[in-house]
Each structure stands twice: as structure tokens, then as C-alpha cells.
Amino acid sequence: METYYNPADLARFEEIGKNAPDLAKKFFDYYAAVFADGALTEREKSLIALAVAHAVQCPYCIDAYTRACLEKGSNLSEMTEAVHVANAIRGGASLVHGVQMRNIAEKISF
Amino acid sequence: MDHFNKTLAAHDLQLTRRETTTLQINVGLLCNQTCRHCHLDAGPDRQQENMNQKTAEAVVAYAQRSKFDTIDITGGAPELNPNLPYLIESLSRISSRIMLRSNLSALNNGKNARLMDLISLHQVVIVASFSSLDESQANGQRGDGVFQASIKALQKLNSIGYGQSGTGLELNLVANPTGAFLPVPQAQSEKRFREVLHKKWGIEFNHLYSFANVPIGRFREWLKASGNFDAYMKKLANAFNPCAVDAVMCRALVSVSWEGYLYDCDFNLARSIPLGGCKRTHILDMPGKPQPGNPIATSDHCYTCTAGTGFT
After folding, report:
1. What is the reported pLDDT for B311?
2. What residues of chain A lie within 8 A of the CB of B185, using their CB?
């Protein structure tokens, strides 16, 4: 069955540079610099990326950063907690807007 | 995926021996564990494939006439071979550095007090398998209870001076990935293991080595059964690093099996690919070290040792 997402496309990511090579180079250079060891370790950055991948619900990123987390030495407990962090922020972001709902409701209610 | 030799040729490289400085002795396939990444399919049922006294004596004689700098004793679990004390005592008179590869649980099983005394007396370097800081990952790879047994063994080794500065007793760890993925870069892994092992369990060690899992033996079977084989082989081949070829261990090592036959490395031994890809040679028929410049037999598993920073 055809789908919009094909796992093999992940390995073709760099093809995005075919019609805009300068922009792609800037992006991939920046990307590599972001994930290099710095004040945060590569392992910590991969866990953040895994959480963000779930927040933006990108199947390519989930695939890539599940593997990256394991290859950087993280374990399933840490990775599951990272996904919960994404979930807490996403859920919290919805819930905190409930204050806006309450403000409006209170304003227009007796 | 190209054959390994084709990839070497594409980079204008050849895999040949330099001076052989290490004799690796595989004393047998008997092991108390059945690790899922084992390239030898070692386990408790491999009772018969264990080096006997006669072969052990022939190995010592070969080491004597060849004068290796380093002896690297492996298995299976070498602790389960009754000839291990003889090998350590005899070989420590011949070579300056004796290494013992241990799964830790076989070393610290309550029956090896004499062996513990012997290894420290002869300053045998312990190279201990310790795959992960996470108990479920480690047990998933190595078997239930192995993680805690490994922690206790490392603490015991520390208590007799291993891994402690000034004792001369060297304790090194080997971390293999717990699945079909590449290892953590060695320097990063060593730093984290040192911090966590010290903080949680008060454990000290000298060095940590990160090795990729080799797609042969039990691990190959698992890769195939789980549908990971093709992707894993591609991952290894894509990570080929031409700079790693110069330092791969087979260039300076010769491996002898529990039966006394010679191989270019323990992985070729596991696949029965004889030394130099030629006719099988027994140590009784080997006058000395393999000659520098001799070819090294290769196969697809060689991509493991050239992936990333390599397997030295």
C-alpha cells in the first residue's frame, strides 16, 4: 500500500540540496554544529531531539533519534522519560490555555 | 554491499600483516552465559570444545619459540577451562603482558579464590565485558542477573587492587552495543561509565573500549531472525573508515583455537577461515610468528573492525 511516508526516504534527506545547494549546505553545517558535543553532550542532545521528534510527530526524526539515542549510550528508561517530557509540555500547553477559556467565560458570564 | 576486499581496493588499501606482537588464545567455547551478541555461539552446552592440557602445552611451546609481547586469553569463559592457571603461570614467564578476557560472572563465582590470587600475583590485565550502565539493557544482552553479578565482580576486583592507581593491576572494560546499532564513541563512553560507575557503585577502572558487535555466530542468527541483518551490514559498510585499516588488531595479532589451529583473528576463527586464507595450520607445524607482509583473510564481518574509529 502506498503511503506518504517511506522509511527509505530518510537516507535521501541530503537530496533536498539538489535545487538549493547553498541553503542546504548552510542548514546541514548548522545541524552538525548543533549536535556536536558542547555545553550539552551529544547523548543529551539526542535525548532532546527524540523528545522534540515526538512533539512534532515526525516519523523520520523518531526513527533517526531512537537509533541515535541508543548509539550515544542512552537506554529505554531514559528515552521513555524524554517522550514523557514532550508529552507533558504538549499536554501542559493545551491545559494552560484553559486559563484563557476561563477568563473569557468569566468575562461573559454572570 | 561490496566485498570487503573490493572496498579496500577502492581506497587503494591492502590488508597485510606487520610484526605480530600478540598471541590470542581462545581456550574454548564453554561459557556460563549465552550472550545474544556472541560471535562464537559460546555457552554452557559447549563442554567438548575446550582446550586440553596437551594443546595448552603446545600453545606455551609456540609462545616460547615465538616471543610475543602480549598474550590475550579469551573464550568462551576462560575461567571455566581447568588449564587456565597453567597457561597464566607458564606464559607470564614468557611474555610481559598477559590479558584475560572475562565475562566477570565466571571470574567471581565463589569458586575462584585461587584464580583471583593468581591473576593479581602475575599482574594479569583483566579485560571485562560490561556492555551497559543500564541493568535491563545489560541483562537483555547477557542474561538475567548478569548485571548485578558484574557489579559485584568489579567491586571484588577493585578490593584486591584492580583499577586502583599504584597497584599495577589493570582493569579495562569492554562495552558492546546492546543490539543492532553502532557503539558509543569510545572517549564519550569511557567518561560516562567512569562517572556513573564511581558515583553509583564506587567502581574504578583504567580504560574502556567500545566495540561494535560482529555479525557472526549467535549475533548473526539474531540479526537474520529479527530482520535486522541487511540494515546492520549496510550500517557497518557505510561507516567504513579507511584510516581505521592501519590499526586493526589482525595486523599485529594471531589467534589460536582450542584445538591449536591458527587464524588471523578470533572472528575468522569463529568462521573457520584459516590464517592467511590458506590451508589450516596447527601450532605444532608453525615455526614462529606469521611473517610481516603476509596477507590477512577477509570476509564481510571485517567491516565491523573498520566502522567509525575502528576495532583495535
Report:
1. 63
2. 42
Fold of A40-110: AhpD-like (1.20.1290)
| Each residue's pLDDT tens digit, B177-195 | 999 999 998 999 999 999 9
**Which segments of chain A are extended strands (E)?**
none
Grid cell at residue A68: 541515535
Spans in chain B with pLDDT lower than 50: none
CB contact under 8 A, A73 and B188: yes
Which residues 124-143 of B are in CB contact (within 8 Å) with A? 132-134, 136-137
CB of B184 closer than 8 Å to CB of A71: yes
A47 and A79 Cβ atoms separated by less than 8 Å: yes
To which CATH superfamily is domain B4-304 assigned? Answer: Aldolase class I (3.20.20.70)
* Gap between the Cα atoms of B164 and B158, Å rounded: 7
Q: What is the pLDDT of residue B166?
A: 94
In this prediction, residue A29 has a pLDDT band, given cuts at 50, 70 and 90, of: very high
Three-state secondary-structure class, residue B254? strand
Tens digit of pLDDT for each residue in A77-88? Answer: 999 999 999 999
What is the C-alpha separation between B282 and B287, in angstroms, rounded? Answer: 10
B31 and B103 in contact (C-beta within 8 Å)? yes
A40-57 residue pLDDT tens: 999 999 999 999 999 999
Mutate to test the interface with B, among A12, A44, A69, A71 (most CBs of B within 10 A): A71
| Residue B208 with chain A: CB contacts under 8 Å | none
Structural domain boundaries of chain A?
A: 40-110
C-alpha R_g of chain B: 19
Of B136, B181, B185, the CB nearest to A70: B181
